[in-house]
Amino acid sequence: MNIGGASKASGVSQRMIRHYEAIGLIPPPARSGNYRDYSHADVHRLKFIANARDLGFPIEEIRALLHLWADRERSSGEVKALALARADELGRKAAVLEAMRATLLQLAETCHGDARPECPILDHLAV
Predict the structure, then answer these.
(1) Of 37, 43, 48, 96, which has the maximum CB count within 10 A?
(2) What CATH number should be reported for the domain holding residue 36?
(3) 39, 3 in Cβ contact below 8 A?
(4) Is residue 67 part of a domain?
């Protein structure tokens, strides 16, 4: 199938498919004249990548996961370690985001939000 079909079947944009090919995350597909010819295995790999991206894995960890996925002799412990490390990182990011949210809510509560020019939010940002 052509890149449009692979994009539709995998949910990955054509631009990202070309990018993944350029960085070696997917192998170059067969060519039919000037057109890329993607197989069902290519689409499956693209779905795998999309699912990993949706879970917050960066490209280099996706590369490692793809390698582990292809390695039938792998230890599931390696995969679990990657998943737990990513979960820990997401937990740290969530804590930072929650602290930012709490600060914004606190600042918004102290702001009158009326015609007066005084604004604690701007005062806080100017510090």
Answers:
(1) 43
(2) 1.10.1660.10
(3) no
(4) yes
